From TrEMBL:
Keywords: Cell membrane, Membrane, Transmembrane, Transmembrane helix, Transport. It comes from Paenibacillus odorifer. It holds the Pfam family MFS_1. It is a multi-pass membrane protein. This is MFS transporter. It is found in: Cell membrane. The chain crosses the membrane at residues 69-87, 99-118, 130-152, 158-178, 216-232, 244-267, 276-294, 300-321, 333-351, 357-375. The keyword Metal-binding does not apply.
Length: 395
């Protein structure tokens, strides 16, 4: 539990640091002379450079453990922010954002792999993933306002400098607090002990014997697409002089709805497949209501949408833990991150191209319904068989 608390602290500081930049990056890029198209590429480049980082993170975390990659990701991202404080041209900002996307691609797979290894019990793992969601949600609620406040007091350069040193300090704390991976014990060649017989060898599943079906990764892809559609369309649908304020309030209600269901730890006792199906249906109905039922206040719909998200994401994490099993956690979570990065890129692009033809909210509704239809049948008994053979604390 001590390790989980340290991880939650590091994740909160990292997410706080990242989300605090969201209201800053666009006006900072404009101050450097960037146009709207260039800003779009700058924002998208962060997701694109996530992909090679996620691919490397999956293999390396499984092979070498999580600690070194958590430290590397935090310290490197902090150093990039220190350089970002001195950017003079839009191209400087583009390259630094690309480098930041690659560096931070290691953080989420490493942290979630370590959290999953803290217990072999499915319910406990679900609680750890719910805690991860709570930390992320709290950071997303607090940090944008904090970032705007720091900019008002210290300017862009001072803000990026302070956030960079915060990430570096977090990485140093992680180096001393996150446990190192256990070393494998190898019997000396000249040992007098008798050789192990085949029946004496531990029964450990081979990591590549049961690879996760690529069909499962369509789930985070479609979910991330729908979220990208929401973040694209919501600011455009708000009109008037207080449009920025109203958008911020609605996004806060979305996070508060997620926080409510993330705090209901008893939900982790239910099977991941059932929770995923219920959450997908609830999110799809919320998007349908945003597209067609204008008599329902948007604040109510977004709160319910957030509540469905709070059910979905811990269940999706539990599903991938069960599918991946021992030896494949890093690769499984990295593939999930890749699917979500692709969805976050494809969703707004599709919404922007089709906005004149159909409501983007209806596109999100269709995507979630397709995800629900494509969700493979989940045999909870089969998925839990690894638990009795896997000592998660050995990692």
């Amino acid at each position: 539990m001590k390790t989980a608390l340290w991880l939650y602290l590091f994740l909160f500081l990292a997410f706080f640091d990242l989300h605090a930049q969201y209201p800053i990056l666009t006006p900072f890029a404009i101050s450097l002379g960037a146009g709207p198209a260039f800003i779009g590429w700058m924002m998208g480049m962060y997701s694109l450079t996530h992909l090679p980082g996620n691919l490397l993170a999956g293999v390396l975390v499984d092979r070498n453990g999580s600690r070194r990659y958590i430290v590397f990701s935090l310290v490197t991202a902090g150093a990039i922010l220190l350089l970002q404080a001195h950017a003079q041209l839009p191209w400087h900002l583009l390259m630094l954002r690309a480098a930041s996307g690659f560096a931070l691609a290691f953080l989420s797979p490493a942290c979630m792999t370590l959290l999953a290894s803290l217990s072999s019990d499915a319910t406990e793992q679900g609680k750890y993933m719910s805690g991860h969601g709570i930390v992320h949600t709290l950071a997303s609620v607090v940090s944008p306002a904090a970032g705007a406040f720091i900019v008002a007091k210290a300017g862009y350069s001072g803000t990026f400098t302070s956030l960079g040193w915060l990430l570096i300090a977090t990485g140093i704390m992680a180096f001393f607090s996150v446990p190192a991976p256990a070393r494998r014990l190898v019997r000396p060649v000249n040992s007098a002990a008798p050789p192990l017989k085949k029946q004496d060898l531990p029964s450990v599943p081979i990591s590549d014997a049961n690879p996760v079906s690529k069909r499962y990764y369509l789930l985070p892809f479609f979910v991330s697409c729908s979220q990208g559609v929401l973040f694209f369309e919501l600011p455009l649908s708000q009109t008037g002089s207080n449009s920025i304020v109203s958008t911020g309030i609605l996004l806060s209600l979305l996070s508060l709805g997620a926080l409510v269901t993330l705090s209901l730890f008893f939900l982790n006792r239910f099977s991941p497949g059932g929770r995923i199906a219920v959450a997908l249906l609830g999110m799809a109905l919320c998007f349908f209501a945003l597209a067609s039922l204008h008599s329902i206040p948007a604040s109510v719909i977004l709160f319910m949408l957030g509540a469905a998200k709070g059910i979905l994401f811990p269940a999706m994490a539990s599903l991938f833990i069960s599918l991946g099993g021992p030896g494949r956690m890093g690769r499984t979570f990295s593939m999930q991150s890749i699917a979500m990065s692709l969805g976050a890129f494809a969703g707004p692009v599709a919404a922007g191209q089709l906005r004149a033809v159909v409501s983007p909210y209806f596109i999100a509704f269709l995507l979630l319904m397709v995800a629900l239809l494509l969700l493979p049948p989940i045999n909870s008994t089969k998925l839990s068989t690894y638990s009795s053979k896997w000592n998660g604390r050995a990692a």
